[in-house]
Amino acid sequence: MRIVFFGSPATALPALNALLSAGHQVQLVITQPDRPAGRGQKLTPSAVKVYAENHGLPYLQPEKIRKDEKALELIRETSPDVNVVVAYGQIIPASIIYLPPWKSLNIHFSLLPKYRGAAPVQWAILNGDRFTGVTIFQLNEKMDEGPILTQEMVEILPREKAPELETRLAHIGARLLLQTLENISRLELREQDHSQATYAPKLTKDQGKIDWQEPAEVIDRKVRAFVGWPGAFTYFQGQRLEITNGQVTQGVMPEARPGEIVQIDKSGIYVCCGRRSFYLIEKVKPEGKKEMSAYAFSLGGKVKVGTALGSEFPKK
User: Fold this and answer.
1) Does the 2-196 domain belong in CATH 3.30.365.10?
2) What average pLDDT does range 119-142 have in this prediction?
3) What pLDDT, on a 0 to 100 scale, did the predictor assign at position 315?
4) Which of 118, 133, 186, 277 is most buried, by CB atoms within 10 Å?
5) Beta strand 261-265 with 268-273: parallel, antiparallel or unpaired?
6) pLDDT tier for residue 153 given thresholds of 50, 70 and 90
7) Which residues contact 316 (CB under 8 A, 6 or more apart)?
8) Which CATH superfamily groups domain 205-300?
9) Among residues 89, 129, 126, 128, which one has the least CA distance to residue 111?
10) Is pLDDT at 181 greater than 70 in this prediction?
11) What is the pLDDT of residue 313?
């Protein structure tokens, strides 16, 4: 098939690579403009742009595709059989959605209508779901509301973090996309049950703040869901401390208040949480520093049993 591919982050690459490997003709790639990234805020291309350049694929980076007549004209000129969309990051106008004979297919990392929106993987982990999945559906002008072509359920593995799960879903989605395209003329579109819809809105920086009054299980899900962005964090002596790895721990622990450090050993830092549960912090990223083991952090700082985490302000 002749395809125009829309995508931006690394999670879109398995689908793009699968299309090329299967012999489909990717006539044009549409991706986000270069954006500032990192501590230096250097302009950085999307992963899809880098891939397109390395594979000699023509690409376009419209600032706002809804208002870009050049993008629409180029897509018309390619005469695609179908548009394929994976985590593109912009709202695509109807003039482009309905242009190809097979219209536009989107790979979404949830079992729609559950978790419509920008962060379905993170919210599935955050809510403690045992299963999620991949949905390939036909785009319409509403957010993730189009009719479904194919779905596949996927188990969320114990202690799996959002980036790991997202990568796994991206590869499953790539395989499912090829199957969908191969059988597209025989597949029936299935309307979503909109009454069952739930939403997975874009995450904000403040959502990563840990409330030690919550049970350790809830804190563990937050760490796994928010690793990378926005990051699960607490405060130690007034400094932001991101927790990048840890787990719920069992065993006899001393009486303590939520947020209080109850034990330190080579495994890490043990913290009391709500409902007298305990969380083992295994890896941390101190403000302005690289990731390190929690034990190494305890050796270099004033981390002691009885110290409380969570205050934004250092003790005077």
Assistant:
1) no
2) 97
3) 59
4) 133
5) antiparallel
6) very high
7) none
8) Formyl transferase, C-terminal domain (3.10.25.10)
9) 129
10) yes
11) 62
